[in-house]
Amino acid sequence: MEVLWAREDAGGQAATARDVSRALANDRDLAHTTVMTVLDRLAKKGFLARERDGRAWRYRPVASREGYVTELMLGALNETGDRDAALAHFVRSVSEDEIGVIRETLAGLMSKEPPA
What we know:
Distance between the termini: 39 Å
CATH superfamily of the largest domain: Winged helix-like DNA-binding domain superfamily/Winged helix DNA-binding domain
CATH class of the largest domain: Mainly Alpha
CATH architecture of the largest domain: Orthogonal Bundle
CATH topology of the largest domain: Arc Repressor Mutant, subunit A
Shape: elongated
Helix content: 55-70%
Number of domains: 2
Strand content: 5-15%
C-alpha cells in the first residue's frame, strides 16, 4: 500500500505488480508472485482498484492512508468483545496533542445539526 500511495502522492499512475516488486526490492526479499497475490487480495477486499493493461493489472489505492488505517482500526474494534472498553483504553493511551484532535473532532461532530 505504501508503494501505491507514494506513487499517487507523486502524481504517478497506477502501478503493476512488477512496479511494486521493483519498488520493494531494496527493502524486502519478496517473490514477485507474493506481491501479485497480496495485490490481488487487496483488490478483492476493496482496498485497491485495478484495471487491465495488456496482460498485466494496474493497481491504485481506493482510500487514503488515513481511510485505510481507519478501516484497520474499526476491524480491530470488531475483534473485541467490549468496544467501549477498547475505545476507553485507546483514548487513555494517546498523547495530549492527540486528545486535542479527538476533542476538536468530537466538538465538530456535536455541533452539526442532526439529519431531518
